[in-house]
Amino acid sequence: MKIIGFKKVTFDFDDGNSVSGFMVFTSSEEKGITGVSCDHFFISEKKATACGFVPVLNKEVEVYYNKYKKVIKVDAA
């Protein structure tokens, strides 16, 4: 996946807690698609720091998800 955009976001919850992180927009080539496929994911600052992820435009990354489809790690490809 190639990073085509990102923004810093904070989500506030009803219980007073919040989580900050990055909304990252990506593109990738996929079999059966003419052109590219686009997607996005959220990664918290805590998880980004733990795996050393810093979003950079045009950087190739590999995204790993848990069984609940939540991002657990992002590696530079």
* Order of helical and strand elements: EEEHEE
Number of domains: 1
Strand elements, count: 5
**Tally of separate helices:** 1
The overall pLDDT, averaged over residues, is: 95
Sheet with the most strands, sense and barrel status: 3 strands, antiparallel
| Overall spatial form | globular
The radius of gyration over CA amounts to: 13 Å
Structural class: mainly beta
Residue share in helix: under 10%
The low-pLDDT segments are none
State the strand order across the main sheet. 1-2-3
Strand coverage percent: over 45%
In words, what does this structure look like?
Helices cover 9% and strands 53% of the residues. The chain has 77 residues and is mainly beta. It has one domain (2-76). The strands form 2 sheets. Strands 1-2-3 form a 3-stranded antiparallel sheet. The chain has a two-stranded antiparallel ribbon with strand order 4-5. A hairpin with a 5-residue loop joins strand 1 (2-12) and strand 2 (18-28).
